[in-house]
Amino acid sequence: MRAAAPALPTAGSAGAPGVVPDAPVWAPHPDAVARARLTAFVAVLRGEGVQVSDYASLWRWSVEQPERFWAAVWRFCGVVAEGPEGAPAGAPWRTVLVGGDRMAPPDPVLGPRWFDGARLNFAENLLRYDDERPALVAWTERGARARLSYAELRAEVARIAAGLRAAGVGVGDRVAGFLPNGPHAVIAMLATATLGAVWSSCSPDFGVQGVLDRFGQIAPTVLVCADGYEYAGKPVAVLPRVRAIVASLPSVERVVVASWLGDADDVASALPTIRGAVAWEAFGVGKEAPLAFVRLPFDHSLYIMYSSGTTGLPKCMVHGAGGTLLQHLKELVLHTDLGRDDRIFYFTTCGWMMWNWLASALAVGSTVVLYDGAPLAPRASILWELAAAERVTVFGTSARYLALSEKAGLAPGRTHDLAALRTILSTGSPLAHHSYDWVYAAVKRDVRLSSISGGTDIISCFALGDPTGAVWRGELQALGLGMAVDVWDADGRPLRGAAGELVCTRPFPSMPVAFWDDADGAKYRAAYFERYPGAWRHGDWAELTAHGGLVIHGRSDATLNPGGVRIGTAELYRQVEQIPEVVESVVVEQTVGTGVEATSRIVLFVRLRDGVALDAALEARIRARLREHASPHHVPRVIAAVPDIPRTISGKITELAVRDVVHGRAVANVEALANPEALAHFRDHPALRAS
């Protein structure tokens, strides 16, 4: 679909020998463009008379003609559904979009409402294959743990679904998962979806209060858990926490306990101490029935997802089955170029939306590779060992993991056979320029590196990959098809050549169908639509690029504004973390003084390599790099060393929590943090007192 690809430049740092100025760091071979599923999709559209010539024109058509675009995605990806009597010929719906001129909140009458009249089941679409091809491969830190074919997966889902049905679970009931990232979580989710029930999950590293803050709002009737998990070589038992959770959740009538640490006898002895507990292996036995799927309206509830909860009780976002399925199929098939022969991996926990996204690859018939454990321990190369051993074609991870791999001196392209690897996906935070260089120098030269960005709020992406286009250093490749993304200034005017608020100006299928316990939609409107009525404000500080891509500068609520100059936090991280002594960093703006004498300043906290001290020389190098490669406005007034930086359970550094601590304010929900003890390093830091 693209014009002929330019010659591939040599990967490396800007200014390095062989680097072509103002050229992409990678471009697809014309043969790959011709084979891409996106190219096939465009050919179908052209056959129907749609005039598109390149990705830019395709994107414009997709947002200007959303009814035609999303119907075309439905047909191209083969969504399994049924429609009402009187539906248009060949279409299992009455209308594609009702109320397309509205954004929020979704109204059952006024809209926006997608694919009115269509009835489908999410699990039926993910379990459309029933053969011996591998569906799930699960690894832990000790290597491969389990393998299930599509036929075996269907059989296990049928058994667990029978158990849930016998436990009284039906349409709309909630089933909660407190599980490691292994087959049990995928099976339980699919079994829940077959019945039209709603799945919600937390990672097992959440504390009791963090789980109750989430599951306590939605009142699940069944809790599926494991006996524990392993992290950095250490087994972590969770059944004591499960007992405490169940004791505080009166809605839970049945607890299904899987043995993940490997001691079935320990699980058996613990069952009598947990109300309503039964072993995974016994659940549904004797109640087997053919796998059946309850087909429900397109917007029927499928998942309940949670905001990070670092500023209060987590928001409960309800996502619909049809919108999740269609959006994920678009992203997996068209943007990731995924097919049946692919093996896709994403480093995630069951508490992050990328787990839900990864599971949807089953609808394509791909092999989903799961991993539960630490990403860099007990060996720093463990994930690359997995990629090589399982012949992974799509490798997904976080920007932080790539940066830490570079810091650790890894060169997986020289130490592992990555011949099968075709695409690397990165999300969670902005991907720094130097990480692009490292991937192309140390991982693989001929690989598409797609930084993607969206969120739990939309269970998908606003910007992501384009298998027919080039990769430009520091940029997300493309705006998502069907996503009317723009960048606005404070007055709601489009910005070009400058950073501003990331917005979406037209409805899309994966908007939440509701917030839990929000009958009048007030929480929903407050979350996204108060700043710009009629447009979704996502909370990212972003900039459109000349190549049709996007740069994310950080969260807009964490944007720095010293002296009236707005600075995205990622702009500092991009430079500071290229300094070898710096492992990672977090930056906040601190208000000093009160009233008319109040001023603000940038404070940079750095975590340094073991044995390295923050002395005057290192501070001077940090300031010089920021002044030279960013601007004088980026230079922090204060630089301070800390031994650890707080992050959420999903691994994202939380600037807002650090900002609250620096200002002496209480952090609203420390249970949302993976390492809340790290906050103590910022409270009354000597560097702040001395400045």
Question: How would you sum up this structure, described in words?
Answer:
- This protein is 28% helix and 22% strand.
- The chain is an alpha/beta fold and 691 residues long.
- The strands form 9 sheets. It has a 7-stranded mixed sheet. It has a 5-stranded parallel sheet with strand order 8-7-9-12-13, sandwiched between helices.
- Helix 4 crosses helix 11.
List keywords for this structure.
seven-stranded mixed beta sheet; 691 residues; 28% helix; 32 strands; 22% strand; alpha/beta
- Provide the helix percentage: 25-40%
Q: Main sheet?
A: 7 strands, mixed
Q: Low-confidence spans: pLDDT under 50, at least 5 residues?
A: 2-20
Question: How many β-strand stretches?
Answer: 32
Q: What is the CA-atom radius of gyration, in angstroms?
A: 25 Å
**Helix-strand makeup class:** alpha/beta
Shape: globular
Strand order of the largest sheet: 6-5-18-17-19-20-21
What is the percentage of strand-forming residues? 15-25%
The number of distinct helices, counting runs of at least 4 residues, comes to 21
Q: Write down the overall mean pLDDT.
A: 91
* CA(first)-CA(last) distance: 57 Å
Q: What layout of secondary structure does this protein have?
A:
Blueprint: H1 30-35, H2 37-47, H3 55-64, H4 66-77, E1 81-82, E2 95-98, E3 113-116, E4 119-120, H5 122-126, E5 134-140, E6 143-149, H6 150-166, E7 174-178, H7 183-194, E8 198-202, H8 208-218, E9 222-226, E10 228-231, E11 234-237, H9 239-247, E12 254-258, H10 264-270, E13 277-279, E14 296-297, E15 301-306, E16 316-320, H11 321-335, E17 343-346, H12 353-359, E18 367-372, H13 382-389, E19 394-398, H14 399-407, H15 412-415, E20 423-427, H16 433-443, E21 448-451, E22 453-455, E23 460-464, E24 478-479, E25 485-488, E26 500-504, E27 514-515, H17 522-528, E28 536-544, E29 550-555, H18 569-576, E30 582-592, E31 599-608, H19 616-629, E32 638-641, H20 655-662, H21 686-689
Parallel strand pairs: 5-18, 7-8, 7-9, 9-12, 12-13, 17-18, 17-19, 19-20, 20-21, 31-32
Antiparallel strand pairs: 1-4, 2-3, 4-14, 5-6, 10-11, 15-16, 16-27, 22-23, 23-24, 25-26, 26-28, 28-29, 30-31
Helix pairs in contact: 3-4, 4-11, 6-7, 8-9, 14-16
